[in-house]
Amino acid sequence: MPEIPVNTELLTPILIVVLVVVVAVRLFRILREYERGVIFFLGRFQKVKGPGLIIVIPLIQQMVRVDLRTVVMDVPSQDVISRDNVSVRVNAVIYFRVIDAQKAIINVENYLQATSQLAQTTLRSVLGQHELDEMLANREMLNTDIQEILDSRTDGWGIKVSNVEIKHVDLNESMVRAIARQAEAERSRRAKVIHASGEMEASEKLVEAANRLAEEPNAIMLRYLQTLTEIAAEKSSTILFPMPTSMMEGLFKTVERHEQHKDKHDQ
């Protein structure tokens, strides 16, 4: 089989061009505005570069990209036992971002996984120190406590935790019924207190009204007549209307004088 002649003079420039292209591709890197490149020189940290066009010398320098945008991480549901021994399942969401690319790469192996695991343990630890009523009523306070703890513990990783939000507090069916009974009892207690308060205010007004009526004897007569008018409007068959003896004194005196006059006339 005849050999195919190879033009070494043409092959050499082609190899040189390919080599230059490969080196150029490995040499020049482009980092976006929200990216930074952590540069290692022969395995040792050198500097943080970016954004824009940067130069990375192949085989001598290595680059690790770091995203500086805010990360929204969903914390899986955690089984929490509250301080009053109630078992609940709680999940949350945390918002954080890398503010120091050097620490995020050098001080921790995987800052995303580390932050996720720390958020889960912190969520269980903080909520376990509070009662169920506090979990349901004071979420803003709990969110702030968890955020401050996470922020302080991730500071060495170059991470800033900006916000934590507890999304759901799931209760079992028996606990839901117990809370419903408690709420019903609380509403009943408030109704009794309101009723008692109303009775107290009414008694005070009645005492005040009695004192005012006692100042003018004719006022009680007007009140009786008004009550009689109200009762008569109901068209009841029988009306029992009490009359004070003071109102009958004049009538009794008139009858007595009439009887005396009659006896004198008979004599």
From TrEMBL:
GO cellular component, one term: side of membrane
Compartment(s) where it occurs, according to its Swiss-Prot or TrEMBL record: Membrane
Top-level division of the source organism's lineage: Bacteria
Keywords, sorted A to Z: Membrane, Transmembrane, Transmembrane helix
Residues passing through the membrane, by range: 12-31
Residue span, Band domain: 26-183
Pfam families: Band_7
Family membership: Belongs to the band 7/mec-2 family.
Membrane topology recorded in Swiss-Prot or TrEMBL: Single-pass membrane protein
Protein name: Band 7 domain-containing protein
